[in-house]
Amino acid sequence: MSFFLSTFGFLLLAVSLALVAFGVLMALNRKTRQSGKYFALWWVPGTAAASGIITRDSVTFTVGAICFVVAGGVFLLENRSVRAEGAQRTNDRRSRRVTERTAAETPRRGGHRRKAS
């Protein structure tokens, strides 16, 4: 039983470390920087929980698992706000482009001003 538990702990540790590395890699890209930071930080408690399984320490596992759940909730909430900000900025840019394009395409007629009546 302890062999299987240790094997499971090592596999979980390897996966969580790989996901931390993936989050760091995401954070290096300018477009996914904020999400990458939160993703990497989310998986740090996962490594703590995995080390609790390996060492058969129930307190380390429990604290790591609770922190993992809390960090996951924060990650989801922050990811929603980051996406909403990005969508708002994209919509603002699109509307400015459309306004600029229609202003540039509007033909000027006659080249003179009308007299006010």
Describe this structure in words.
It is a single chain. With 117 residues, the chain is mainly alpha-helical. The protein has one domain (2-104). It contains 3 helices and no strands. Helix 1 (2-28) runs antiparallel to helix 2 (33-54) and helix 2 runs antiparallel to helix 3 (58-105). It is rod-shaped and about 95 Å long. The mean pLDDT is 80.
Measured between the Cα atoms of the first and last residue, the distance is 97 Å
Count of folded domains: 1
Strand tally? 0
Number of helices: 3
What does the radius of gyration come to?
26 Å
Largest sheet: none
SSE class = mainly alpha
Beta-strand proportion: under 5%
Low-confidence stretches: none
Average per-residue pLDDT, rounded, comes to: 80
Measured as a percent range, the helix fraction is: over 70%
**What is the N-to-C succession of helices and strands?**
HHH
* Overall geometric form: rod-shaped
Quick synopsis:
With 117 residues, the chain is mostly helical. Helix content is 83%, strand content 0%. The chain has helices at 2-28, 33-54, 58-105.
Mind sketching the topology for me?
Blueprint: H1 2-28, H2 33-54, H3 58-105
Helix pairs in contact: 1-2, 2-3
Keywords:
single chain; 117 residues; mainly alpha; 83% helix; rod-shaped
